[in-house]
Amino acid sequence: MKKIIMIAAAGEDNSLGKDNDLLWHLPDDFKRFKRLTSGHKIIMGRKTFESFPKPLPNRTHIIITRDENYTTNYDHCIVVHSIEDALNLISNEEAYIIGGGEIYKQGEEYSDFIELTRVHGQFEADTYFPEIDEDIWEVIEKEYHPKDEKHKFDFTYVTYERRP
């Protein structure tokens, strides 16, 4: 069965990033992202893809861009020109929408779950996660993590499922 999951880390004000970079460094969140997305297709916008030093290992990257001439020489990377084209490449499998802000907005209506790391703080950002409508999304799991020597901010993993 096809299962589309949006995965993101966002501040309490839904901030995602600034200047195509993350606003925090949360090693445990990186590990969780890797564990959840490894072995799956990940859907992202071109700017998100270009923010990586190289493609993430053990994942097929589906890159959405309006640029009809955009190409990449990396293996396991597919370029498409709309969220619908990206989703047409997903069959009976899990796939993750990993950003950025515009791709989350476009992908939300097609998503079944949201894996959100809610970073407890307000941040200066230029990219935001869409507002989560509690009439559409139900929290099914929460796991709080206090700040520590490796994590400058408290954060909570929140799993949402689309209401029937």
Automatic annotation (TrEMBL):
Keywords: NADP, One-carbon metabolism, Oxidoreductase. Residues 3-162 form the DHFR domain. Transmembrane segments: none annotated. It is an enzyme of class 1 (oxidoreductase). Pathway: Cofactor biosynthesis; tetrahydrofolate biosynthesis; 5,6,7,8-tetrahydrofolate from 7,8-dihydrofolate: step 1/1. Signal peptide: none annotated. InterPro entries: DHFR, DHFR-like_dom_sf, DHFR_dom. It catalyses: (6S)-5,6,7,8-tetrahydrofolate + NADP(+) = 7,8-dihydrofolate + NADPH + H(+). GO terms for molecular function: dihydrofolate reductase activity. Key enzyme in folate metabolism. Catalyzes an essential reaction for de novo glycine and purine synthesis, and for DNA precursor synthesis. Belongs to the dihydrofolate reductase family. This is Dihydrofolate reductase. It comes from Maribacter cobaltidurans. The lineage of its organism: Bacteria, Pseudomonadati, Bacteroidota, Flavobacteriia, Flavobacteriales.
